[in-house]
Each structure stands twice: as structure tokens, then as C-alpha cells.
Amino acid sequence: MPKIDLSQYQTLIFDCDGVILNSNKIKTQAFYDVAKIYGHGPAQKLKDYHLQNGGISRYQKFEYLFTNILQKPIETQELKKLLSNFSKEVKKALLICGVASNIKEFRDKTRNTKWLIVSGGDQAELREIFEKKGLSNYFDGGIFGSPDDKDVILKNETKNRNIIGKSLFLGDSMYDYQAAKTAKMDFIFISKWTEVKDWKKWICENEITNFNDIESIA
Hints:
- This protein is of the alpha/beta class.
- It contains nine helices and six strands; from the N terminus they run βαααααβαβαβαβαβ.
- It has two domains: about 140 residues, HAD superfamily/HAD-like (Rossmann fold), CATH 3.40.50.1000; about 70 residues.
- Strands 3-2-1-4-5-6 form a six-stranded parallel sheet.
- Helix 2 packs across helix 3.
- The protein starts with 10 loop residues before the first strand and ends in a 7-residue tail after the last strand.
């Protein structure tokens, strides 16, 4: 297992699903369940698209359902209803899902480092869930999510001087890696709850540092 000197970083950026919360399978199933009103085929295609595009927002995924799977114009009210139903299903499950072990100890070891959440999840929903689960105080740099995508959030928070100095992104998807790379940040792949297919081959090909979970890093 590689050793990481965390003291070199001024900012740590965490994805939420699959890194802080054991919530990947919850959201994957929710995409299928919400879309099954259109039949098994479209629902399965949306689920597959979600698995192939971990880390991007639900807004983009449901738009894909309309334009590419159902091949019809996006209807605003119908889209709002799908997003609302998805949010209701996910919220209940997130409140009881598991949290990364030893997060408090990890925070104590990096007390001089700013922490942020940058997620594909809905921002308002994330902030509510983290508050109710007693996690908000760890993330002094803020909790950010969709409708802005991760590239936009990272760019904005760097511009606003909220993300400062040398930064490390901890994620569990290919998109997390690309977002970190675009923002010129170091990256660690967290594999314990990832849904990336053949992730071992992928991290080897890209020479990506991997840890099972965040408690293994410190």
C-alpha cells in the first residue's frame, strides 16, 4: 500500500457516493425504479447509462433518458416529477446508509486542511443529509453538488479561493479522475464501494493511486 503525505495538501476534496457514504447501490437501484414507468427496457438502459457514467448529475442522466432512450423531447413537468420521485427514494435510504469508518479520526489527522464535498448528487439534498447525519461540520470548505457539474464546481471554488494550495481529490469514478485531472489536482481512487467495471485494470493502465477506503490513507 503506498504511503501518502497528507501534510502536503491544503485542500482535500471528497466525492460523496462511494467515498463518504455507502450509497452507490441505493442510487443505481433508484434510477431503475423511477424509470420503470416506461418499461423494463428503458429503465435498464438508464441504469446501465448511470453505471457507465458514475459521478455525473442526475439531471444529465434523466435528460439522457428522454433524448436518447425514449427519443422524445424533454417535457419540463415530467422531468420535474422524475427528479422529485428520485429524490424521495434516495433521501430515505441515504439517512440510514453507512458512512466511511473513522471519518472523525481522519479529520483530526488533517485538521489544518480544508475539506470539501464535490458530488454529482443534488446540492440541497446533500446538505440536508449531511446535516442530519452529523457530518456537515467536517467539511469546512462547503458541500457542493448538482445542478452544477464537478468541473464547474472545482473551477468556481478555485476562482473564489475556497480551494487553495495543493489539492487532493478522493473519488470512486472515472469522471472523478477526469475532473481532478482537468483541475490539475492529485487524485486517489477509493475502491471499496465503487461501481466502476474492471477498475483494477483501469487504475493500472492510468497509474492511479488506490486505497480501499479513506481510513486506509492516514
